[in-house]
Design brief:
Chains A, B: Keywords: DNA-binding, Transcription, Transcription regulation. Chains A, B: It comes from Ornithinibacillus halotolerans. Chains A, B: One of its GO terms (molecular function) is transcription cis-regulatory region binding. Chains A, B: This is LacI family transcriptional regulator. The structure is a homodimer. By secondary structure, the first copy, chain A, is an alpha/beta fold. Chain A folds into three domains: about 40 residues, no CATH class; about 130 residues, Response regulator (Rossmann fold, 3-Layer(aba) Sandwich), CATH 3.40.50; about 130 residues, Response regulator (Rossmann fold), CATH 3.40.50. Helix content of chain A is about 40%, strand content about 15%. Chain A is built from twelve helices and twelve strands. The first copy, chain A, has a six-stranded parallel sheet with strand order 2-1-3-4-5-11, sandwiched between helices. Chain A has a six-stranded mixed sheet with strand order 7-6-8-9-10-12. In chain A, helix 1 packs across helix 3 and helix 10 packs across helix 11. The longest helix of chain A has 17 residues. Chain A is elongated. At the A-B interface, helix 4, helix 5, strand 2, helix 6 and helix 11 of A face helix 4, helix 5, strand 2, helix 6 and helix 11 of B. The structure holds a DNA duplex.
Amino acid sequence: MVTIKDVAKISGVSPSTVSRVIANNPRISEETKKKVRKAMKELGYHPNVNARNLVAKSTKAVGVIMPSSTNTALQNPFFPEILRGIGSVIHDAQYSMYLSTGETEEEIFKEVQRLVYGSYVSGVILLYSRINDKVTDFLREQDFPFIIVGKPYDYETEISHVDNDNFKAGKEITNHLINMGHSRIGFIGGSRDLFVTRDRENGYLAALDEAGIEHREEYKIHTEFLKSGGREAVEHLMSLDTLPTGLVVSDDLISLGILSMLEEYGIRVPQDISLVSFNNVYLSEITRPALTTVDIQIYELGAQSAKALIEKTQNKNEPTKRIIIPYKIVYRDSVSKC
Amino acid sequence: MVTIKDVAKISGVSPSTVSRVIANNPRISEETKKKVRKAMKELGYHPNVNARNLVAKSTKAVGVIMPSSTNTALQNPFFPEILRGIGSVIHDAQYSMYLSTGETEEEIFKEVQRLVYGSYVSGVILLYSRINDKVTDFLREQDFPFIIVGKPYDYETEISHVDNDNFKAGKEITNHLINMGHSRIGFIGGSRDLFVTRDRENGYLAALDEAGIEHREEYKIHTEFLKSGGREAVEHLMSLDTLPTGLVVSDDLISLGILSMLEEYGIRVPQDISLVSFNNVYLSEITRPALTTVDIQIYELGAQSAKALIEKTQNKNEPTKRIIIPYKIVYRDSVSKC
DNA sequence: CTGTTAGCGCTTTCAG
DNA sequence: CTGAAAGCGCTAACAG
């Protein structure tokens, strides 16, 4: 391995000068800079990040924590897309990204502890938000820089997060259904433990309220995220005496399953039932029918969270931020007039 | 930050003893071990990974390189799934995982150089395999431990890789179609730059040959991966005077698009056309019809590549390995007799 | 079984 | 504008 000393020797200066050249210290003459850089190139010198981190007592690296992966929920294209967004900003800032996956909550917790205590990273991005989350509590207690993608369960004003206005989006997309003449509208969501589900559902309810439409408990279904492809949800629906004519589904991937089940029952979308959902992942444009869905700008969620986190790692006094990424409804073919 | 010295002081031993306790060196008495561990717990001590890596001149970390992300191909659920597989092994081995995403090939190349030269990682997993890939060449020249998921373009016997037998899988799944009475069988694949496409296609061709079915150039379509949801592919198909009755599609996600387009043209699957594909990602069971597809065991691909890489980082003389993950055809509803 | 010492590669005062 | 020296936290001979 070629070190700073080798470069120093070759270019006839001291190691400290080389170090300054690396940092592009203005107090070094252009001449020596040139000389040193030439030597670096010749030798193929690259600074050793561990040595550097050791003295800097900090790491230009962030940890990205995926939700626990016991189920297939991780197969959601949401994740690669948000990683892309994070990666882009990370890369521009010359940071690196540690990815942490884990089967169980406990495993994840241990892993985060390791990342934090071992000085692996100088900040953490949580790709989920759950109630009573040990990881969140730990990070807060440690006063360690972190960002939640989504809405924190507690201490909302103390934890920086980047989120969509899921309430408003839920309301708006439900209103779209209402405006199209629907009044019997159902909601199918993933686990209520996830805040995003709640927010979208609450938006849905608010839209009904405003329109003077009564809630029907039997129209609200929570299916385990991705489990059984929405089979239970649709079976439940079928057991009802009057079917809804519109469906608000909290995730494109769930919609895909619902669409499939609905067809099995001979129910056509959008002729018999209209359906709207959330996320606008790639596949939502290639389903039949193509989905009218809320584009939540996943890439941007990732990019902004990385940006905010990096700022925070660079300045501990950075204030707590809430960053709301605007959404946009994408109108396609899954809705018709009622 | 609490260091090894603090622990030493509290427990009344020297730093090196503490170090030995951490490494669970057998030459330390159980008594002192207990004493030291107690102090570590009290103080909340955790070893600093940078200091450790610095002296060890190695890093228990691997870099995972995603393909360039100019298109939406990354939204393929393949990726989160393979990351899960890698993560699991990484975690058990107490390693960490650096994730590298990049827009362009050049960006990725720079990033890999950084990871390697800067001693960020001690091995690399490439989640793609492309012809004339600078990254592969670089890693080879550096004699840096790395694994390709897929088949290397060149130096196949020198580069460890984990792959499926895509040729055989392609042949077998095509045979399934043939056994069901089909003889006009088309192939729709992603970019031919990707080896996986070629292998699957060659398997398809071999099956035709064996069955004495002539190739038809117009039945082989290469659509840019995911682009336009297979629209061009299906349009091309429609322009033909005689349609195929069976379709081998190289990726579940492409199948989804094809399914959708076919429906648009009023062609029913499997009644009018049978369709088989590859990967068996979650969504392939919730499409309509559910897909008959090759389960390539994505998770296992990830896990085995991580395992092989870790072995290689721990023993430079580990021989070059080719690891073939068995596949399994999952029969569902997208095929019917012809 | 344990302590002393040197040093990993780099940055950063402090001198000059 | 540049060099010498100290030290980041840890490990690994080498002594004892």
